[in-house]
Design goal:
This protein is α+β, with helices and mostly antiparallel strands and 234 residues long. It has one domain. The chain contains eight helices and nine strands. Strands 1, 2, 3, 4, 5, 6, 7, 8 and 9 form a nine-stranded mixed sheet that branches. A hairpin with a 7-residue loop joins β1 (55-64) and β2.
Length: 234
């Protein structure tokens, strides 16, 4: 009886682990689909802005919380350029979570895709070192959009994170100040099959891109193969 119970517990744990892995791998795959669709939209992220970004974070299908609470919660993936100063090709994705209050009312009741661009070393370091509050621990602003949008205004140059939203086919910059961004350690464990931190994924050497992340990384590499930032001090 004890052996049967032990076997049943083992099977349950394995099944639960496989479900979690499949769920997070699907989320990572969806992040690639969202990024591809956005880059194929005429009014998308300006090329000159993407070329200056050091990291990109994609949250597919962010959902608003219970009515009256106003909270929103999203899970997705962060990809950064490899190498010193984030100047190399795009690397392996780390899973992240976004939690917020005020922007929930702006998004309305439907699911919304979010894309965050991390524009400098300080912004990337803040995100990788600990949970950050946008607007407090890291400066954030609604990103410019469209082919004719300029990335040289003071607001964009000062911001460490530029944010975008897509809902019901509409694509626009959005303010996420007050939201918190943190590493999703459980999701990273599910995707990579072992305990690994977001920092080790992004900054470590030899971390292979999982199959479920090939699409997202491929889209970023095709859209912006080089970091064209002049590395201005912010």
């Amino acid at each position: 009886m004890i052996h049967k119970l032990t076997l049943g517990v083992c099977i349950l744990l394995v099944t639960t682990g496989l479900y979690a892995a499949n769920k997070e791998q699907k989320r990572l795959e969806n992040s690639g689909v969202v990024m591809e669709e956005i880059m194929n939209t005429p009014e998308n992220i300006p090329q000159e802005v993407l070329e200056k970004a050091e990291c990109v974070i994609v949250f597919p299908s962010v959902l608003k919380g219970a009515i009256g609470i106003g909270g929103s919660y999203g899970r997705g993936a962060m990809v950064c350029r490899r190498g010193a100063g984030f100047r190399g090709p795009w690397g392996a994705p780390a899973m992240f979570a976004l939690e917020g209050g005020s922007f929930g009312f702006q998004l309305g009741g439907q699911a919304t895709d979010l894309v965050l661009l991390v524009m400098n070393d300080h912004g990337a370091a803040s995100i990788l070192n600990s949970k950050v509050k946008l607007g407090a621990d890291a400066s954030a602003a609604a990103g410019p959009k469209g082919r004719d949008a300029s990335a040289d205004t003071d607001a964009y140059l000062r911001a460490e994170i530029l944010s975008y939203s897509r809902s019901r086919g509409l694509f626009a910059g959005i303010s996420l100040e007050g939201s918190t961004l943190r590493s999703d350690d459980d999701a990273n464990r599910a995707v990579y099959g072992r305990k690994i931190t977001a920092r080790d994924i992004i900054m470590g050497e030899g971390v292979a891109i999982p199959a479920s992340g090939h699409h997202l990384v491929g889209i970023l590499q095709k859209s912006s193969p080089r970091d064209e930032s002049a590395k201005e001090s912010h």
